[in-house]
Amino acid sequence: MNGDCMVKLHNLQLQKDYFWNTLGTAAYSFIPVVFMIFVTRINGIFVSGIFTFSFNTSMIFAAVAIFGGRSYQITDVDEEFKSRDYVVSRIITCFLALFASSMICCFLDRKTLYISVITMIFVLYQISVAISDVFYGILQKSNKLYIAGFSLTLKTIAGSIVFMILDIMTKNILLSSLAFVFINIIFTIFYEIEQIMRLDSIELFEKKIKDYVNTTYSIIKKTWPLAFFGILNGVFLNVNRYYIQFFHPKSQGYYGVLFITTSFLNLLFSTILAPKIVRLTTDFKRKKIAKLKKDVCFISRISIALGIMISIVTYFLGIPVLSMIYNLNLNSFRVQLAVIVFVSIFYALSNILFTVFTIIRKLKSQLFLLISGIFIQLVLGPLFIKPFGINGAVIVYAIGNIFLFILTRIFYSLFFKSYEYET
To answer: Where do the structural domains in the chain lie, given as residue ranges?
Structure first.
């Protein structure tokens, strides 16, 4: 009887963790989409362009602040590093992100001062998220993930409501964004830290500064491939955005509206892949390479089939739906939107293979592949985007993603060919 009760309690705990974590993650993921729709309708397409440019730029610095995320933290079952070490390490990487973003914004032209200020506000938001993330890692290791999900949900909803009310009243996204960041910081300080201190008394001043620096260096040394992958992935997805801002700043809003669809698609494709990661890992550890390759092929085929169906639906219904949501006339972008959705299939296929590279610990290969993809877009950007605007950006996006997939597929084939030869 006691055993049955324990099982029921365990299952209830898992359900609670799953529910609040999923809700919190979804709320956080949809912030840029919801805000962009809201800002476009309230402030207009030009201000919407400033918002989407600033928010997406801040997400690159978020990768610097998080520096590998809590993946390494929650898998540190041997407690190589204490909770205090992870917190201090995260504070240091957050300062690095703040310093890097400040330096870049300081060197920009005065004409972009307003955009720089909005970007820095969202960098502060990403830093608050990064600090919360390390706290969520502590909660997750203590089987209190639901607290993290509850907090993320609550502060995201509260911050969003305040943002919208202020924007309606003032039509000023700078003021609204500041209020949104303030709400998130308040939740972190007065709720999340209190919850953490109940579980783990973290004394930040137990060690000397030199010891903290050495510990942070050790953590960064172990997590840098994952961190740089996140940073480079962010750059890869945003290269064209910067060319649009430089050559055609008035088109930034329309660019954001069209390319925001890729966020939904990436989320959809990741839900197909996620349940299979454990199986792929197990297959590789047991040297069942044929089974692993079969599973990869199966996941890829599903992604391709789903992507093609979505592309067809998008061609006929995508523009009317987006035009209604954003209150814009987007009829001239029907083909471009369909191409963006179709090309996203190649990015999804690359991500499937990147997951395999992570499993087989070929992390540096991922970095090389992304750098190659970024380089192609950097070279082609001025050639296509300057004369053709958004049409050119779509072309460069297509070439960049197809090139990345072909190169990734070649690396994937070469690795398993050599692996099978060795075994």
So the answer is: 1-222, 260-423
